Amino acid sequence: MAAGFKTAEPLEYHRSFLKENCRPDGRELGEFRTTTLNIGSISTADGSALVKIGNSTVICGIKGELATPPTDAPNNGYIVPNVDLPPLCSSKFRPGPPGEQAQAASQFIADVFESSEVILKEELCIEKEKVCWVLYCDIMCLDYDGNLLDACLIALLAALRNVQLPEVSINKETDLAEVNPDRKRHLNVARHPISSSFAVFDDSIVIVDPTAEEEALSTAMMTVVTDEDDTLCMLHKPGGTSLSSEKLQDCINRAVTRNREVGKLINTVIQSVKTHKPLMFSLYKVMKTKMEEPSGGSSVKGVKGDTA
Amino acid sequence: MRQRNCDFVGTTMEVDGQSTLSLREFGCEQNLLSRPDGSSSFVQGDTSVLAGVYGPAEVKVSKEIYDRATLEVVIQPKVGLPDCIKILQTGSLVMQCQHLPQDGSKMLKMGSPIWNMDSRVKERAREQCVRETCEAALLSTLHPRSSLSLVLQVVHDDGSLLSCCLNAACMALMDTGLPMGCLFCGVTCAIDPEGHIVTDPTAQQEKNSRAVMTFAIDSAQRRVMMSSTKGSFSVNELQQCIAVSQRASEKFFQFYRDSVRRRYSKTL
């Protein structure tokens, strides 16, 4: 009966839950789904991370390449984010050129980078006008169940913290770049922007972390990005029904607490990788493989947001 | 045969305790193109956008939505076409790259990376903002299984482009005579390094600022319909910018009202 009701009148079905201040999956209005993070999942990439928010799964791999710096900014490097939504992740997406949502997501990630200066582009420069790093940040969605932007940003941030680039020096005689793969260093991630997405139902009810179904039925979407100092990096609301300043303030407050939760999660995962010595780490890897995760690295389950 | 309608409003200055609300001279001309069902040209200072609306018309089956109209928004930049050959100069090396539509967002990997993000992707993000704002304002359920297309041609960009696109879109939709639940207007605010809020900034002011925010404000409740920001700012600054935009929106809505009244009054 309930299943039939859901299929025939999906909006009414959701409304009947929202009236009771809860959602079909049992969450409260201000509650995030369980967020799982695994870093170093791709051994061939320079840095990688896999994020799950509920069923939504996003993987990010970062590849560093050498290139000549841009002529207009000779002491800068490049960061090239790209979000891919393959047909595998949802029936919403077709094969072929990237659709509007994928392009909008890529642009969103690029804008967050630009606004918050996660990594100073100057630090990617190795030798002025000669050689610099290009970081290709490829983000791929494996399972689309809403809240793509949050998952992408967490994956990217965790992957950046995981990146280890080899030392590069310029040979004075030959004028060529020499890579020393034995000496690797981490990137200096200056700020930690974390996003929180909201969906608006019936012009008034605001819910956090919408699923794909809730996104489709909602009248507006909004994403708030804050950093660890509670500074806003982005307030992205691409249209939809209007929101009052008070509602916006509530959303920002929720985003600030979410930032703390996710920041803690990323730190825990990074620490757990650091504290395990290589031998131990591989052991941990094996154990993990047996237990649940098909991939390597370290993963921590947790961060279930409480109510706003 | 409808008449062309042209209106301009002079620079307005208003001092209110903390901040000065100043908008560049803005104006609009409606119904200036003959082929589209509705058209407008909106000018804010040196920024100028031309908009045309076609519809409601027949829709492609693949894009048909059973209970409402399908809205398509295209923003044409002033220079460069979406799928054309671009000649780029990198140092002494001139490269010619065929920009294939197949890899819309992919970067060209030839020698050195040429540009970080394809300019087309930026237009896409703007299009999404304009489309979803228009969708919220339009009563598209009154035209199910039909298509509406809105084409915005950037004539000149001197800052506050997205807000000018929104204003041009609203005037063009009004000119078409499509049923709308409310009107909307776009306001851009920039925060300069000293923390002052500049409304309707020029391209130079945008470049020098710490943060730039664009809001779409609805005419019914003066609330935020769309928000797009660049740069980082505090919560307090955001709330101030929203308040300033809401005040600036009054000017736009008054302008809309005056311009429509003038257009339909018998004593022209």
From TrEMBL, chain A:
Keywords annotated in UniProt: Acetylation, Cytoplasm, Exosome, Nucleus, RNA-binding, rRNA processing
Q: Where is the Exoribonuclease phosphorolytic domain?
A: 31-166, 193-256
The identity of this protein, by name, is: Exosome complex component RRP43
* Major location (coarse): cytoplasm
Q: Which CDD domains does the UniProt record give?
A: RNase_PH_RRP43
Where is the protein localized? Cytoplasm; Nucleus, Nucleolus
Coiled-coil spans in chain? none
Q: Name one GO biological process term.
A: U5 snRNA 3'-end processing
Task: Indicate whether Endoplasmic reticulum appears among the record's keywords.
Answer: no
Annotated Pfam families: RNase_PH, RNase_PH_C
From the broadest rank down, the organism's phylogenetic lineage runs: Eukaryota, Metazoa, Chordata, Craniata, Vertebrata
This entry carries the following GO cellular component terms, namely: cytoplasmic exosome (RNase complex); nuclear exosome (RNase complex); nucleolus
Which species is the source of this protein? Synaphobranchus kaupii
Q: Which family does it belong to?
A: Belongs to the RNase PH family.
TrEMBL record, chain B:
Domain named Exoribonuclease phosphorolytic is located at 23-179, 183-247
Q: Which locations, inside or outside the cell, does it occupy?
A: Nucleus
Annotated GO MF terms: RNA binding
Keyword rRNA processing listed? The answer is yes
Q: Which GO terms describe its biological process?
A: nuclear mRNA surveillance; poly(A)-dependent snoRNA 3'-end processing; rRNA catabolic process; rRNA processing; U4 snRNA 3'-end processing
Which Pfam families does this UniProt record tie to the protein?
Answer: RNase_PH (PF01138), RNase_PH_C (PF03725)
Q: Respond yes or no to whether keyword Thylakoid is given for this record.
A: no
* Cellular component terms per the entry's GO annotation: cytoplasmic exosome (RNase complex); nuclear exosome (RNase complex); nucleolus
Which Gene3D superfamilies has this protein been placed in? GHMP Kinase, N-terminal domain
Q: List keywords of the entry alphabetically.
A: Exosome, Nucleus, rRNA processing
Q: What InterPro entries does its record include? A: ExoRNase_PH_dom1 (IPR001247), ExoRNase_PH_dom2 (IPR015847), ExoRNase_PH_dom2_sf (IPR036345), PNPase/RNase_PH_dom_sf (IPR027408), Ribosomal_Su5_D2-typ_SF (IPR020568), RNase_PH (IPR050080)
List the SUPFAM superfamilies hit by this protein, alphabetically.
Ribonuclease PH domain 2-like (SSF55666), Ribosomal protein S5 domain 2-like (SSF54211)
Give the UniProt family note: Belongs to the RNase PH family.
The name of this protein is Exosome component 5
The species this protein was found in: Synaphobranchus kaupii (Kaup's arrowtooth eel)
